[in-house]
TrEMBL record:
Name under which the protein is recorded: Acetyltransferase NATA1-like
UniProt organism field: Abeliophyllum distichum
Alphabetized SUPFAM superfamilies for the sequence: Acyl-CoA N-acyltransferases (Nat)
Domain of life: Eukaryota
Alphabetized CDD domains for the sequence: NAT_SF
Length: 239
């Protein structure tokens, strides 16, 4: 996705999620900076993403390795290194959050015809530091992890999205657009030149979605990667 420092807790009266809304179902969303307390959920999301992408055999991340690399002691400011946005969901409005010089959580809402059945609801209850204010039924629905890169052609920094993922039961509701827009908006506000990411060639739905968001697919470019033994073979090349 360390860059993500925990935001200050919001104020407001404790709230709980209703079982249903006879006038319709509004799903309230919040994008916030992740903290080290969110690592168990980030790890679960990464594993689910690896399964979805048919790459679970390559997934070596553990909660410990994620905590050590994403949220080390004395982490750099957000957006200067690895940053993780979490997507949180509730059927009750999130209370207003105080202004934060690092990042103000993004609050939006979407209308649903019916409530979403979440079979993993218990496993994805939010670890937000303001959980006592929000109640216990705030659910983590997805994440995006990104970090700075640089364009020599533009002579400007940019943001590279390593992973963006929405849990299966919450897909096709506009939540991926909310997550991606949060990163792109941040890059634009910072005066960056571009935002880049990759997509699997068989994931037609994702490709269509990204094109609808205005992204250009660049088939003439190929990913080059050194990892594992091939990478370690260079460890002592210049010693």
């Amino acid at each position: 996705m360390a860059a993500a420092a925990p935001p200050p807790p919001p104020t407001g009266a404790p709230i709980t999620l209703p079982e249903s809304d006879p006038s319709g179902n509004t799903l309230f969303t919040r994008i916030r900076l992740a903290t080290v307390y969110d690592v168990p959920h980030i790890h679960k999301l990464i594993h689910e993403m690896a399964v979805f992408e048919r790459l679970a055999h390559l997934c070596e991340a553990t909660p410990e390795s994620l905590a050590n690399t994403l949220f080390p002691p004395n982490p750099p400011p957000p957006f200067t290194s690895f940053t993780v946005f979490l997507l949180e969901l509730s059927y009750t409005p999130f209370p207003p959050t105080p202004q934060n010089e690092q990042f103000n959580p993004i609050l939006k809402s979407i209308h649903l015809e019916l409530p979403i059945e979440d079979p993993e609801r218990e496993a994805f209850r939010s670890k937000a530091i303001d959980v006592n204010v929000l109640g216990n039924d705030v659910i983590v629905g997805g994440f995006v992890l990104f970090f700075p890169n640089y364009s020599t052609f533009l002579a400007k920094p940019g943001l590279y999205i390593e992973d963006i993922f929405v849990r299966e039961c919450y897909r096709r509701k506009g939540l991926g657009k909310i997550l991606l827009s949060a990163v792109v908006s941040q890059a634009a506000k910072m005066g960056y030149g571009r935002v880049e990411w990759v997509v699997l060639d068989w994931n037609v739905n994702a490709i269509t979605f990204y094109e609808q968001m205005g992204a250009k697919i660049l088939p003439e470019w190929r990913i080059c990667r050194l990892t594992g033994d091939a990478l370690q073979a260079y460890a002592h090349t210049n010693t």
